[in-house]
Amino acid sequence: MNLIDYQTKHFPTWCPGCGDFGIWGALKASFVRMNWQPHEFVIVFGIGCSGNMADFLKCCGFHSLHGRAIPNAVGIKTANHKLPVICVVGDGDCYGEGGNHLIHAARGNHDLTVVVHDNRVYGLTTGQVAPTASTGFKSKSTPAGIIEKPFNPLALAISQGATLVAQGFAGDIPHLTDLLVKAYQHRGFALVNVLQPCVTFNKVNTYLYYRQNTYKLDDSYDPTNKIEALKKAVDNEKIPLGIIYQENRPTYQASLSQLSEKSLVEQGVQLKDISVFYPDFR
Ligand code: SF4
Ligand code: MG
Q1: What is the four-CA torsion angle of 241, 146, 49, 160, rounded to 10 degrees?
Q2: Which residues in 141-236 belong to E strands, given as ranges?
Q3: Which residue, 179, 7, 195, is CA-closest to 91?
Q4: How far is the CA of 100 from the centre of ligand 1 (A)?
């Protein structure tokens, strides 16, 4: 497979320099590494600048409602748990509107990879503050600065049962590609939070900001140590990049005896079969 195999006829409409381009490139490179044909995996997109990628990636794609990518992905995965299922979402989308779904998919260890474009603003609706913004961040919705503490996706995901939690940077495509491949290869709920500059509406968290304030975890770091992972997740001084936490635990689908031999689609379950349990169902 080649990068061009995942190209549609539409070129992205993102602002020149947007970090979404880097994530788009890393996703395509990761699909090449997995040697997946476009029909062999599913991406569920959220709503936002990130979700617009639904038009720019050739794949089995589903453009869902705002904040609802994860429950759609859970449904797809439950119907055919042999299919790789990925969510491509934004921080406002996944951590704001969809935060509830993130928690419950993590604790269920649903076998998904959730890739979050974390630019700390709502870019598509022109720059309102999003949950991951630092306290005091000024935007058109918070002209005097946001009062709340920032949402911490890494700490939340680790504490609620996600079995792989990683962080990448849209300005480092090779490193992000490696993280995505490891997330696909992991069995269980994988969150890949991607630090993504929004060059139009976030003048604080720029490419330079991330280059000066991030570092890569090296081989001496043990991602299976949950306490150390939580310490990394809450470190506000230097921002870690890499696999922050990983553990092996049975996935939700692997724990269902009904799916032990065949997926639901292989079993040929029809809507009419439901009437056995619900006679009034039409
Ligand atoms: Fe990217 Fe921000 Fe422009 Fe959206 S508004 S395309 S996130 S730079
Ligand atoms: Mg955003």
Answers
A1: 50
A2: 164-169, 190-195, 214-216
A3: 195
A4: 25
pLDDT tens for each residue of 116-156: 999 999 999 999 999 999 999 999 999 999 999 999 999 99
Asked if residues 17 and 49 have their Cβ atoms less than 8 Å apart, the reply is no
First to last CA, the chain: 44
> Which residues 6+ apart lie within 8 Å of 278 measured at CB?
none
Which residues, in sequence order, are bridge partners of residue 85? 42
Ligand lying nearest the CA atom of residue 20: 1
Given CA atoms 204, 206, 210, 213 in this order, what sign does their dihedral have? negative
Angle (CA) 112 113 116, round 5°: 135
222 class by beta-carbon count within 10 Å (0-12 exposed, 13-18 middle, 19+ buried):
exposed
- Count of Cβ atoms closer than 10 Å to residue 204 Cβ: 13
| Residue recorded with tokens 């979404």 | 20
Q: At what angle are helices 173-185 and 20-34 packed, to 10 degrees?
A: 50
How far apart CA 242 and CA 16 sit, in angstroms, is 27
Closest residue by CA, ligand 1 atom 1 = 18
Q: What are the pLDDT digits (tens) for 24-46?
A: 999 999 999 999 999 999 999 99
Quote the ligand 1 centre to 202 CA distance (angstroms).
9
Q: Quote the CA–CA distance of 3 and 53 in Å, as a whole number.
A: 15
Q: Round to whole Å and give the CA distance between 76 and 59.
A: 15
Q: Which ligand is nearest to the CA of 97?
A: 2
Q: How many CA atoms lie within 13 A of 244 on its CB side?
A: 29
